[in-house]
């Protein structure tokens, strides 16, 4: 009779130990991630980055992304405070109608998995919490729409391949009138999701409703997850045009709590070195109007390039990206 109890005790100890280790690793400062067992976090293709618009030329293109099922109304939208961010998942009926993106020289089809937010504390009446900065300026809020390459069955598989993940990133600007449609019912959402793992069901709407009005102009580059294990598996698309958020919605986000009940005061990673990477400023032109340097010649080689093997580190924080 003693043996099973002992095994149970050992299992319990290991569970608690591993849980504490994971929590500790995930909440440590980003500068320590590399030495805490996530070597990819010290790689050369890390995200987020500062986008210096003076330094990068504009590329005119006419091969628009093909957004499929983006206008379909989700059967259910659930937002959850996972202790690090507010994450929204969308259900569809039938499930094969999940939104996806192809075309635009992506080299595959990428299916929508989840979206989540990065924000910061209010300092001198100014919010500053986006991950990517534009010309050194940090927007109040950034949304990441995470997509998985359909050639991989799961996110755990996809994050370990250089062509595994596509993230559409939208930066927000403060607006007194235009609310972010997804979090329209601020009071309800706040009440439900303030505690760790609290969740709320939102009014069904199409995924396209959360996109900025104009998605044809964007910055594009090769990068990584912005949380451990920082796998360099992400094609980043950062829209040039801003989405809108009101102060009440930002206040709601800044009141969410971590597992230890402390506020998630900010959840953005500092910008990382660009190193030898090329960043593309893509601007849509109707077919026949492309006059500047063609995008295709410059884009194809880095997109198809095979980067160094990504270390197969333990995937403890991947849902947060
Ligand atoms: Zn993110």
Automatic annotation (TrEMBL):
Pfam family, one: Carb_anhydrase
PROSITE patterns on file: ALPHA_CA_2 (PS51144)
Keywords carried by this UniProt record: Signal
A GO term, aspect molecular function: carbonate dehydratase activity
UniProt KW Signal keyword: yes
Domain of life: Eukaryota
Similarity annotation: Belongs to the alpha-carbonic anhydrase family.
Name of the protein in its database record: Putative carbonic anhydrase 3
């Amino acid at each position: 009779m003693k043996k099973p109890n002992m095994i149970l005790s050992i299992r319990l100890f290991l569970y608690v130990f591993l849980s504490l280790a994971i929590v500790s690793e995930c909440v440590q400062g980003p500068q320590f991630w590399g030495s805490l067992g996530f070597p990819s976090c010290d790689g050369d293709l890390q995200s987020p980055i500062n986008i210096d618009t003076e330094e990068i030329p504009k590329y005119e293109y006419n091969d628009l992304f093909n957004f499929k099922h983006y206008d379909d109304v989700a059967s259910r939208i659930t937002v959850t405070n996972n202790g690090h961010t507010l994450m929204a998942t969308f259900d569809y009926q039938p499930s094969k109608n999940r939104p996806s993106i192809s075309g635009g020289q992506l080299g595959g089809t990428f299916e929508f998995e989840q979206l989540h937010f990065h924000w910061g504390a209010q300092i001198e009446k100014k919010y500053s919490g986006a991950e990517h900065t534009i010309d050194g300026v940090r927007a109040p809020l950034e949304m990441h729409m995470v997509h998985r390459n359909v050639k991989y069955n799961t996110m755990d598989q996809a994050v370990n391949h250089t062509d595994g993940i596509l993230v559409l990133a939208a930066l927000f600007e403060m607006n007194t009138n235009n609310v972010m449609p997804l979090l329209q019912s601020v009071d309800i959402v706040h009440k439900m999701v303030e505690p760790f793992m609290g969740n709320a069901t939102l009014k069904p709407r199409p995924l396209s409703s959360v996109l900025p009005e104009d998605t044809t102009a964007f910055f594009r580059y090769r990068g990584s997850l912005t949380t451990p294990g920082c796998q360099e598996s992400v094609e980043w698309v950062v829209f040039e045009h801003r989405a809108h958020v009101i102060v009440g919605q930002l206040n709601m986000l800044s009141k969410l709590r971590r597992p230890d009940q402390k506020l998630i005061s900010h959840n953005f990673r500092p910008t990382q070195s660009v190193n030898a990477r090329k960043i593309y400023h893509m601007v849509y032109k109707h077919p026949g109007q492309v006059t500047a340097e063609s995008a295709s010649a410059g884009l194809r080689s880095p997109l198809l390039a095979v980067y160094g093997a990504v270390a197969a580190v333990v995937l403890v924080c991947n849902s947060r990206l």
